[in-house]
UniProtKB/TrEMBL annotation:
InterPro entries given in the database record: IsoPropMal-DH-like_dom
Keywords tagged on the record: Oxidoreductase
SUPFAM superfamilies the record matches: Isocitrate/Isopropylmalate dehydrogenase-like (SSF53659)
Protein name: Isocitrate dehydrogenase
Matches recorded under Pfam families: Iso_dh (PF00180)
GO biological process, one term: tricarboxylic acid cycle
UniProt organism field: human gut metagenome
Family listed: Belongs to the isocitrate and isopropylmalate dehydrogenases family.
Origin organism lineage: unclassified sequences, metagenomes, organismal metagenomes
GO molecular function per UniProt: isocitrate dehydrogenase (NAD+) activity
Residue ranges constituting the Isopropylmalate dehydrogenase-like domain according to the UniProt record: 8-196
Amino acid sequence: YDKLDKIVIGVCGGDGIGPIITKESARVLEYMLENDVKAGKVEFKVIDGLTIENRIAHMQAIPDDVLEELKSCHVILKGPTTTPQAGSGMPNIESANVAMRKALDLFANVRPVKVPEKGIDWTFFRENTEGAYAVGSKGINVDDDLAFDFVVATSEGSERIAKMAYEYARKNHKDRVSIINKANVIKTTDGKFLNI
């Protein structure tokens, strides 16, 4: 971001309490970045349309016009969005979160966990666009008692999440990277990590 003349932060409220919490979060960011906003280095852009009502009206996980607005931002502050569940009476629309991960190639879910009194300083990296998320709910109901879903793993996806974790560890002076998988049982997909 140091190389950008201006950073555009999209503020996308979503559903439920989303508009309230994103508005307040944006206020905190605006306060913290006040000098950069005044200098024209940071711009906040409100993006409407990621509500369940609008998504149902367009029968899309992310309506095309909303996706184009999201793509025009460098950073997105997004509130929670509703994903219709089976039996809810709502149309079966893909999760906006999953669709956003795919459309914007947000492949890394990075979760730091720090508990200083226990000596815990971990950072988890989870691949966000492959695995069970890759095809969404495209499974097969064999009958009322049996269903199958699909898992996708590519060498590229496995390598880039491992590389990102390694680069983070090196940059932050961590002495170990562990890859957690079930390659002993799920040999074909989780096994990709063994060949990195």
